[in-house]
Amino acid sequence: MAVPVSQMWTVASYVLKQKILRRKRYATVLMLEPLLRCNLACAGCGKIQYPAHILKKEMEVADALKAVEECGAPIISIPGGEPLMYSKIGELVKELVKRKKYIYLCTNALLLKQRLEEGVFKPSKYLTFNVHMDGDREAHDFAVCREGTYDKAEEAIKLAVERGFRVCTNTTLFSHVDTERTRKFFSRMMELGVEGLTMSPGYSYQKAPDQQNFLSREKTFTLFRDLLKDPEPEWQFNQSPLFMEFLMGKVHLECTPWGNPCYTLFGWQKPCYLLQEGYTDTWEELINDTQWENYGRASGNSKCQNCMVHCGYEPTAVHQTFNSLKGFARTVAATLGGIDSRKGKNITPPAVGHRIETGAEAQAGEDISGKLHRAVDYRGDVTVKLRDGTSLEGFVFNIEGESVDFFPSKGAEVQVLSSGDVQDVDFTGRNFADGASWEAWTKKYNEQKARREAGEAVGAIGIFSEEAQ
Fold it and tell me: Is 432 in contact with 49 (CB distance < 8 Å)?
C-alpha cells in the first residue's frame, strides 16, 4: 500500500468516530468541483458538456470551505473540469492544508509544470497531485483526444516528484484496453517515482461522447484479473485492498452512494458523483432527503448495474475494513500478502431480478412536468416560456417541489422559477452531449494515423487547440 501511515490513521480514527456516534451515513471523501471547464475533451468523460456561460463559472473559495466543514470528510478530492484552470486553486489548497485535510488534486497535468514554476503550491503531506494517465503514450493520447498530452504529463510528473510533491496516477480503464501494455505502463509510472497507482473501470456516463467502450461487470472482472495476475513487485496501489479484490471478482461489495459525495457549482449533487438527478443546498438535506434505496446495484437502478467505480465502492471497502473482523482480517491479509488475481476464489455476485428507473427516465412525458425534467437532463440552454408572456433563456439544473433552479444565459445569479408559472419549454440551445466531438476526433485520428503509416509528416492533433489550455 502506498498510502502514508498518518493518512491511514486519520481515516481509521474518523471512521471509528462515526461508529461511536452511531452515524449510519457519513462521507469518507468529498468530491469538490470548483469548476466544470476543462482543456481536454476526453472520450469517456461526461462531466464537462455544458453551455459556455456555465463553463465560465467558478466556485467561491468561501463556498467550497463551507461545504468542506458541512461534510466533515477527512479527504478532499478536487476533480473538475480541470482544477489547475481554477483561478483560486492555490488559495483553496492552502486553506485545506491549514485544516489538515488530505487533498487529491485531480489533474491532466497540462498546466502542472506551469503552476509549479509559478510557485502556486508548496509540498505538503496533505497535498497529492492525482495525475490522470490512461495508459501509455498512444492509449492515453487517444483516450483524452489530443496527441502530445502523455509527454507533457510525464514531464510534469517528473518535475513534481523532483520538487518533493506527493504524486499518484489515476487510470480509467475501458473495454479496448491492452493489458500487457497497461502493465508496462504501470511499471513506467513507478519508475518516474510516483507514490502509487489508482485505477477504476470507466463509468458509462450517459453524456460521454464515446458510448461504445464502457465495461460490463463481467468484463471488468476479466480485465482486472488479467492486469493483476502475478503483479510486478514494484507496483504500489493507492487504493484499499478490498476494493481491488472487488474489481477482480474475489469479494462482493454493494455501493455506498453517499460515501463520496459531490459538491459542485449547482450545490450538493444527488445521489452521487456519477449521477446527476438534482441538487440540494446543504449536506444535511442531501443525506436526509435523498431516497438512497433507489441507488446502487442492489436497488435495481438500471444506471447502477455495471458501475464498479471507486467513488461508490471504496467507501464500502473502508467501512467493512473498520466495522467487521472479517473485513479487517481480509484487508490485513491482502496488505501483507499482496494483491494477486491467482489467489482466492472467483465469486459470482448475487442476481438482481428487478429494475427501476430514476431521474429524467422516470419523468418522461410531454406535459410541463415532463419537459422540465428533460430540461434538467439536457446539456444545453432551453427557452422557458412563462404564463405572463415572457421568455427566459438559460440552463435548468434542478427541480425541487414547485421550484425550478435556472441559470440565465446572460446573468450570473441563479433564478428560482415556480413550475406553475411555466407554460412551455423549448429545447433551443445546442445539446453539448450529442457525441459529435467524439465522432469528429475518431475520424481525424484515423486519418492522421493512416497518413503517418504512409510515411507522411503530420503534426499532433486534438479536438481543442493548444490555445484552449
Answer: yes
Domain residue ranges in the chain: 5-337, 360-426, 436-468
pLDDT digits (tens, 9 = 90+) for 206-241: 544 444 545 688 889 999 999 999 999 999 999 999
Q: Which CATH code fits 360-426?
A: 2.30.30.100
Q: Looking at domain 5-337, which CATH architecture does it have? A: Alpha-Beta Barrel (3.20)
Q: What is the mean pLDDT of the chain?
A: 89
Residue 312: CB partners within 8 Å, gap ≥ 6?
Answer: 255, 256, 257, 259, 260, 272, 274, 296
Q: How far apart are CA 27 and CA 201, in angstroms?
A: 22
Residue corresponding to grid cell 470551505? 65
Of the CA atoms within 13 Å of residue 244, those in its CB half-sphere come to 26
For the ranges 135-144, 185-194, 454-463, the lowest mean pLDDT is seen at 454-463
Task: Provide the Cα torsion 258, 263, 264, 265; round to 10°.
Answer: 130
- State the pTM of this model: 0.91
Query: What was the pLDDT predicted at 187?
Result: 98
Question: From CA 68, how far away is CA 73, in angstroms rounded?
Answer: 7
Would you say the CATH fold of 360-426 matches that of 5-337? no
Give the 3-state secondary structure of residue 52. Answer: helix
